Amino acid sequence: MRVSVIGCGHLGIPHAAAMAELGHEVIGVDVDQAKIDRLNAGECPIYEIGLPELLARHTASGRLRFTTDIREAADFAELHFIGVGTPIDADGRSYDTAQVYGAIRQLAPHFDRPCTIVGKSTVTVGTTSQVTALAQGLAPAGEAVDVVWNPEFLREGHAVQDTLRPDRLIAGVTTAEGEKTIRAVYAPILDAGVPLFVTDPQTAELAKGAANTFLGLKISYINAVADMCEAAGGDVSQIVEILGVDPRIGSGGMKPGIGYGGGCLPKDIRAFTASARQLGADQAATLLRAAEKINETRTDVAMDLITRALGDRPLEGSRATVWGAAFKPGTNDVRESPALALAHALQQAGCTVAVHDPQAVATAMARNPELEYTDDLAASLDGADLVVLATEWPEYGQAAPGALVDRPANPLLVDCRTTIDPEPWRAAGWTVHQLGRPGK
C-alpha cells in the first residue's frame, strides 16, 4: 500500500519507518527542510531504540522517503496518517489541534480520488467528526474521503517495538470501508495475533486519554505511597512487589520516583481532566486533578530528601551531579522532564549543577543551557558533593561503585527513582538515600 505520514516527530518518524518495515511504500512530510534532508540521508534527528537502523535501512532501499511538499504526498498515497503534534493549548488544559486542522486544510484540496485519512494524533473527543466535515468539504472527491481515528499507544524509548508489535490496535470508524483499509495497512500485525478493537470515533478518541491518565494515576498513587513510607520508615519497593502480584493491579507502570513527564502523559492527563469537567463528570475531574497535584509536588519531595540526606552540609554552594536529563530512559526527549526540573530546582537553591545523560545531553542543552553537561559518566562525578539519580537509565544501575568511589570527597547518592541496588554502593563507602525506602 502507498501511505503518507504527515508530521515527522517523535510519533511520525517511528511510524513511517515501521510502515516501511511492514512492506508499504512510504512518504513522510514535514515543514522543516533541514530535518527532511537529514531523514532522506538516513540520519535520525531523534533517539529511539532501533530507530536509526530501521530508518537507514528503508531510506537506502527506496521504500521510505521524505518531503516538504504535501501535494506530492497527496498524489502519491492512498492512505494518509496524521501524526502532527497536539501540544497543550494556551489554557494549559486542552489540546492545541491547530496542526491537525492545518494538515487537513493543506491535504484535502488535492484529494481528487477516494482515500483514507487515519488520525494518530491525540485529540479531544469529537475531533474526528470535525475533521471529516472539513476534509470532505475541501476535497474534490467529497464523501469518498474517509476518516478513521487510530490512536497511538507508544512508549517513548520503545516506539519501534510498540508500532511493529503493539499490544492492541484501535480503529474508530464510521464506514465498513474504513475498517477494511485499517485491516489492510496493519495486516502483518493483525496476522501475528494483535487484537484490533473496532469502535466508533468518540470511543477511540477517549481510549488514548483514558489509558495515559490511568497510567498517570498509578504513578501518582505509588508516589503518594512512597511519601507514606518516607514518613513511616517503610519500604515502597516491597509494597510494589506485594501489589504487583495481585492480578487486579499488576506492577506495570507502578514505579515510584519524581513523577511522569514527556510529551504525552502531562498533556493527556490535563486534557482528559478538562474533558471530564466539560462532560459534567465533576467527581472524575476531581480524582484526576488530585493525581496531577501529586505529580506537581514530586520535585519538592525530592528536594526535601536531598536536603535531609546532606544533613549538616548546606545545599547552597554545593556541587550536584544529576544523572539523567531525559524524562525517561530509552529516549532523548526532555519535554517536561522531571530530571531537568529537579536540576533546575537544585540550581535555584544555590547548587552548581552538572547533568549527565547517555542520550539526551544535546536536547537538554538546547532547552536548559544554564546547566553544565557531560556525556562521560565517570567524569560527571568530578568535584561533586552529591549525586542525584533522576532518570532510571540502566547505565546508572549497572555503574560499578568501586570504580567511582574516589571521585566525590564524601560520596553521597540520592536515588530519586529507586533504581539501584543500594547495598554494593554502601559497601563501597557511599551513603545512599532512596525515595520511599529506609536510608542508612
UniProtKB/TrEMBL annotation:
GO terms for MF: oxidoreductase activity
EC numbers: 1.1.1.22
Pfam families the record matches: UDPG_MGDP_dh, UDPG_MGDP_dh_C, UDPG_MGDP_dh_N
Enzyme class: oxidoreductase
Ranges for domain UDP-glucose/GDP-mannose dehydrogenase C-terminal: 321-422
Catalysed reactions, semicolon-separated: UDP-alpha-D-glucose + 2 NAD(+) + H2O = UDP-alpha-D-glucuronate + 2 NADH + 3 H(+)
Cited InterPro entries: 6-PGluconate_DH-like_C_sf, NAD(P)-bd_dom_sf, UDP-Glc/GDP-Man, UDP-Glc/GDP-Man_DH_C, UDP-Glc/GDP-Man_DH_C_sf, UDP-Glc/GDP-Man_DH_dimer, UDP-Glc/GDP-Man_DH_N, UDPglc_DH_bac
Keyword hit for Heme: no
Keywords from the UniProt entry: NAD, Oxidoreductase
Biochemical pathway: Nucleotide-sugar biosynthesis; UDP-alpha-D-glucuronate biosynthesis; UDP-alpha-D-glucuronate from UDP-alpha-D-glucose: step 1/1
Family: Belongs to the UDP-glucose/GDP-mannose dehydrogenase family.
Protein name as catalogued: UDP-glucose 6-dehydrogenase
Organism: Streptomyces gibsoniae
